[in-house]
Amino acid sequence: MHHMNKSAPDHRDIISYLYGSIDSDKQRFLEEQLTEDEFFGDAIEGLKSIASATELNAIHKSLSYSVKRNLKKTKSKKPWEYPMGLIVFTLILILSLIVASYWIILQLSQ
């Protein structure tokens, strides 16, 4: 018997489990995951209410696409990718502070 990877189960294994067409090693692994992870157990219960493997595959593809798209959005932006208005505002603010500091120093020195 080989040892299963303790990472998240493959979506195809989950679908096979839901429809009772999974081999016994993978079934034991999934059932162990269900007892260890309450969130995973709740997710499986929700998936059991879905009618077909086609719907499950469509949901998996949709979720995968959404996750990938959101990960791309959250990547750190390079300085030149920030909105130009923010850059201009920051520069004006810095210049204003410099001018105000100079004026205050000039007034205090008189």
Can you tell me about this structure?
With 110 residues, the protein is mainly α. Helix content is 72%, strand content 0%. It has five helices and no strands. Residues 1-5 have low confidence and may be disordered.
Topology (elements, then pairings):
Elements: H1 11-18, H2 24-36, H3 38-48, H4 53-74, H5 84-108
Helix pairs in contact: 2-3
Annotation keywords:
110 residues, mainly alpha, 5 helices, disordered N terminus
Q: How many distinct beta strands?
A: 0
Distance between the termini: 89 Å
Mean pLDDT, all residues: 80
Structural class: mainly alpha
Largest sheet: none
Q: Which stretches are poorly predicted, pLDDT < 50 over at least 5 residues?
A: 1-5
Which outline best applies?
Answer: rod-shaped
Range of helix content: over 70%
User: What percent of residues are in strands?
Assistant: under 5%
In DSSP terms, counting alpha (H) and pi (I) runs of 4 or more, how many helices? 5
Order of helices and strands: HHHHH
As a whole number of angstroms, the C-alpha radius of gyration is: 28 Å
What's this, in brief?
With 110 residues, the protein is an all-alpha fold. The chain has five helices and no strands.
